[in-house]
Amino acid sequence: MSVRSRAVRLKLFGGAALAVMSAAGGAFAQTNIEEIVVTARKRAEVLADVPISISAFSAESLKGNQITDLRRLADFTPGLSFDNLGSPLIANPTIRGLVQPGLIGDETNVANFIDGFYISGRSSIDASFGGLARIEVVRGPQSALYGRNAFSGAINYITASPGDKTEFGGSVTVGTKGRLGADGYIASPIVEDRLGVRLDYAHTESGGTYRDQNPASNNRRLNDTNTENVSGKIKMTPTDDLEVNVWGNYIKTKTSHQPQVDVATNIGRTTPTAAARYILGKVSAPSETLLSFDPRGFGERREIARGYIKLDYTVSDAWTLHSQTGYLDLKARSQQDLDPFGGTVFNFGGPPFTVQSFGGQPQDDRDYWTQELRADFDGEGFKGSFGGFFMEEESRQATTTATDIPAAIRPFLGAFNVYFPGPLADGSATRIFDDNYKLRAGSLFASATVDVTDQISITVEGRQEWEEKSAQNYANLVPGGVAGGFFSGTFKHFTPRFIVNYKPEEGTLLYASVAKGAKAGGFNPGAPVALIKYEEEYNWTYEAGTKLAVLDGRGSISGAGYYTRWINQQQRDNVSLGFGVPLTLVVNNARSRVYGAEFESSVALTDIITAGIGYSYIDAKFIDAVDNRARNLPDLVAYGVHSSATNLDGAVDGKRIPRQPKHSLNLALNANAPVSADWNAFGGITFNVKSKAYQDSPNLSYVGARANLDATLGIEDGTYKLSLWGQNLTNNKAVQTIFQSTYVTGDTGRRVQLREGRFLGVTVGAKY
């Protein structure tokens, strides 16, 4: 094989995952796909040489596919799912079926990073995708390398940097249903080879395909997000050996009320206090006329200020030292109309009255800083790194409630008026649970890769993690309130990973790995003593995969198969504290297993047309689990929820882990052809489908299979670009997710959130 042929194959192979995504919706297809460099293992590597399952997205493919949030990213990424459990502030990305069954603690099972800077808290992620060079989605546990909560994988957002010449550009987007957007950037060297600056700005109005049917709401759009995003980066090289990057970002978002509807349940316990109710069978989208909300349920508000200082110092040809210091400050508020079917009826010794209640979770005030120090060695036949990480965080989180009670009724409430305050438009409703958290986390980690032969290498990684957590709770459940306790504890775990990779020839990689993922435990403030603390959960994942260049360099294939054992699994539970007020707890009462496989391929069919395919198979089941919310429900015995008719223990062994489709498939066809000496025409069609997904642990209700069709058509000349695009062209407005809703009586029901419908739009851009 000639050197040139090998280089072409390597370039195509290295860009395999990115090519699939570029083909998937309007980014430019290229026969000669550029070599893609990723930093998934905290060092720059060609994607083809990384023995990990990764999908990479360039800034061009993100914009071409209108990927502006985690939900859209999940549509294009095999093995990645996303839901937000009814609020944009409760982001819940999932990789390879390790789904959290509800709001578990404060962290997701997928770690999120910006240039390696750890992003803590659900409310802090999924804020904006502006100013990025690429996104890397890394599948499988990454705890040994990334640390905190990289339990099932990691998402790393790589920001764009200033280059060696002045560049500027931007785009304007106008679409149906109120979709508007404008973004721009400028990047320029200030001192040649020594100092450069980049500034990015984006304003986005996402639009919503549903309208609020309440006349008092002035026909507002639901799920309409207004975002302002400003970021800047300074890159300095004061000496040839030292590079300093300073990055800062401010984001402000406002999201209107979500398109959610409480739906009638038809099975389960129906006692008025702490009832557990379910829907049996497929849940269909309810009538849009039911989308009626009090305008005082304003939705969500969020402000984030964050940044880092990163230093990279080259000691010698073999050694480099790295330091990164990061900081984040977050304020998040949520207030939604929570009433089931129009309100809740109360009677406190006087005439009955209907309460209209409002609430939100989480109300989050958070700030933290992180520090990582790392040394890398790159020698002949050996690569390694070691270092340490420290994080300190304080947060105040609350569940709120507010109610609307007629003035004539209030005299009958007496002292209970304190529990039924009127709703406040600014979201400062009464905090019925107020939790103050402190966290100190530290770790030591190391990694070593040894070339055993020219074709075989072995990687050994490990991280020792310590987390000190404390929580203090105050519960305003009765007149005068109830002071909760103070809880503290230490969690620690060691997470290794072993990788063997084999390269029989250029353009072919085979690998196998064993990795442990871990996630710290925490506290349930306000719970009975025996239930205050929950322990760490962890998984062992066994994986084998391959990356191949095929068709004489015109195509690429990457795939992996894996088996995961999920142990000491953190689950949700409900208890009643009296006065009809429920408390949701986290407990360790499950074990699960996952079999899965993922596959991506891209091929240049001609010089003009590129095709891509991505597929994921995930078989995730409980093998020893209890859902206490399904305990003592006799009418569920016939559906195999309990072990026996006389021992109604809530066992859900053998049931599928909820909110995870078993199959997902992406198909893409993209074309790029010259129409003149300067102009190219491009177009892309993407089809993705996800199979049905159960929505509860007993596997009683499910949402059906969901298909999506996107298309793009445009023209560009390297400076100017015009794109016509459409999302969800079939206007499939099915149920997106189902989740438990808890009412002021302590009763629980089911609420559905609807999927957004069709969007059409045009984007005009330029870059110089």
Structural class: mainly beta
Mean pLDDT across every amino acid position = 84
Distance between the termini: 40 Å
Apparent shape: globular
Question: What's the total count of β strands?
Answer: 42
Number of helices: 6
Instruction: Please summarize the sheet with the most strands.
Output: 22 strands, antiparallel, barrel
Radius of gyration: 26 Å
Low-confidence stretches: 1-34
What proportion strand? over 45%
Tell me roughly what share of residues is in helical segments.
Answer: under 10%
Task: Write up what this structure looks like.
By secondary structure, this protein is mostly beta strands. The protein contains six helices and 42 strands. The strands form eight sheets. The protein has a 22-stranded antiparallel barrel. A five-stranded mixed sheet has the order 3-8-9-6-7. It has a three-stranded antiparallel sheet with strand order 15-41-40, with no helix packed on it. It is globular and about 80 Å long. The model is unreliable at 1-34 (pLDDT under 50).
Key terms for this structure?
single chain; 768 residues; five-stranded mixed sheet; 6 helices; 42 strands; globular
Fold topology:
Elements: H1 3-14, H2 16-23, E1 37-38, E2 45-46, E3 54-58, H3 59-64, H4 70-75, E4 80-83, E5 92-95, E6 110-114, E7 117-119, E8 132-139, H5 143-146, E9 153-159, E10 167-175, E11 180-191, E12 195-205, E13 225-239, E14 242-255, E15 260-263, E16 267-268, E17 277-278, E18 281-282, E19 299-314, E20 319-337, E21 344-346, E22 353-379, E23 382-404, H6 410-413, E24 430-451, E25 456-475, E26 482-502, E27 508-519, E28 522-523, E29 533-534, E30 537-550, E31 555-576, E32 582-604, E33 609-625, E34 663-674, E35 680-690, E36 693-694, E37 701-703, E38 706-716, E39 720-727, E40 735-742, E41 748-754, E42 759-767
Parallel strand pairs: 6-9, 18-37
Antiparallel strand pairs: 1-2, 3-8, 4-5, 6-7, 8-9, 10-11, 10-42, 11-12, 12-13, 13-14, 14-19, 15-41, 16-17, 19-20, 20-22, 21-22, 22-23, 23-24, 24-25, 25-26, 26-27, 27-30, 28-29, 30-31, 31-32, 32-33, 33-34, 34-35, 35-38, 36-37, 38-39, 39-42, 40-41
